[in-house]
Amino acid sequence: MKCPPLAVVGVVFALAAAAQQPPAPSARKIDPKGLQSDFQLARRTLLEIHSGIYRYTPKAELDESFDKVSKQFDHPMSGLEFYRMLAPLIARIKCGHTSVDPPAGIEQALNQTIPLFPFDVEVLEDKVYVNREYSREDYHLRGFQIREINGIPIERIVASMLASTPGDGDSQTGRPWRIGHGGGFPRLLYALLGIESPFRIELLDPTSGKNKEMILAGVTRPEREQLAERRYPRDFASRPPADFQFLDGGKTALLTIRRFGGVAGNGSKSLGDYFAGVFREIHARNSSALIIDVRDNGGGDDELGPKLLSFLLKQPFQYYTELIIGGHDMSSLRYSNPRTMTVVDPDGSIRKINHANSEIQRPSQPNFSGHVLVLMNGGSFSTTSEFLSNLQSRKRATFIGEEGGGGYSGNSSGSIVAMVLPATQVFLRIPMMTYYLAAEGGDPRRGVLPDYEVKPTIQDLLTGADRAMAKALELARERK
């Protein structure tokens, strides 16, 4: 089971000392001994559990980074200051499922009382644009480019956020997508950079080309949510994990998958059963092209990837080549079932031997042999990335849009160890399993690259234009 980047499943380390302490306020200073103890605990647990810790960053390089940061805990710091030191270091692992959050008290305040930046943003081509407004007055700033906040150039702000945002390998789209979605930008602005309300904002009007300066108060999350429900009701509309339609009189089928999990088809079918029904309808209509839209799909149930792929391939195929579970110290795996694993490596890592995705997969019927076109972007991650890599490796589709957000050769995910560092109350998530895909031909450090790159522009955002979809329809019609 894959999980979204910030979900927590599986093993939870409940540290007794942490449970007995109240959430640390941001101003409380922790002595160097406590800071060093938390840092070494985080480092040791990462090495014991994360089987893909050196997948993208060589050991010598990552160890040197850890050593440099360790030396900086020579004076008292708050838990928030500790988080700001740890976040870019964790990001250097280049694993999109490994993350760190601010201290528990700060996290609670971010969700309740701290007035945050009153805009959601889109990060497009290294520029930051207003997408949603949460000030009590609607200033109609959607599409305005943000140039500066509280005297700090936006380029510097984005560079700091990118350096501290988890992402797989060297994908160029995953980290910007995370900053611009799910309220990432307002939270990082406070937690990572310490930029607080009121906000002095310099904007560029895209119509006139003139600068506009404003001073706006921040909004708390409850205030933001109340206003958002009134101002952007479509953002709260319930959408199924997948839906399906025919275009061009049935010649083209469009399957949109928003997440790999849940029920679809009026809530009556598991997603695997839903896929089977979709392909029966495609076969009945004799469609010649299929568009699969997995943009913004952050993943889900890993067994649904090969299930979908099985309707698109005519020959048996392998999906995973191996799954490795870290654990140089076997005590870190005390919650695991030993019957599902075997020790195979001299360093003590263990290899999972009975995952369904490691077995030879059989084609499903009715099999689709027509033209497949896939829409993807930086939000296409985890299980979605696995499906994309396996599909591209077999040259079975044309890919349109932006580079996928996950690693081409696999990722580290599965069950997530969640731990609270006792002195600082900083929250760390570490995936237990590293997946290797039976996919070849792509850059192992990048995501799946598109055959036709179509990057959204601010004009697309304002007009609702979907040029990637338009390109897919154009290609589908050319093949008829």
Describe this structure in words.
It is a single chain. The protein has helices at 16-20, 32-49, 59-70, 79-91, 104-112, 154-164, 174-180, 184-191, 221-231, 271-285, 304-309, 383-393, 458-463, 467-478; strands at residues 12-13, 29-30, 77-78, 99-101, 119-124, 127-133, 145-149, 152-153, 199-204, 211-216, 242-247, 252-257, 263-264, 269-270, 289-293, 317-318, 320-325, 341-343, 350-352, 360-361, 371-376, 398-401, 412-420, 427-437, 452-453. The protein has 480 residues and is an alpha+beta fold. It folds into three domains: 26-101; 115-219, PDZ domain (Pdz3 Domain, Roll); 242-478, 2-enoyl-CoA Hydratase, Chain A, domain 1 (Alpha-Beta Complex). Strands 1, 4, 17, 18, 19, 23 and 24 form a seven-stranded mixed sheet that branches. Strands 11-12-15-21-22-25 form a six-stranded mixed sheet, sandwiched between helices. The chain is globular. It starts with 11 loop residues before the first strand and ends with a helix.
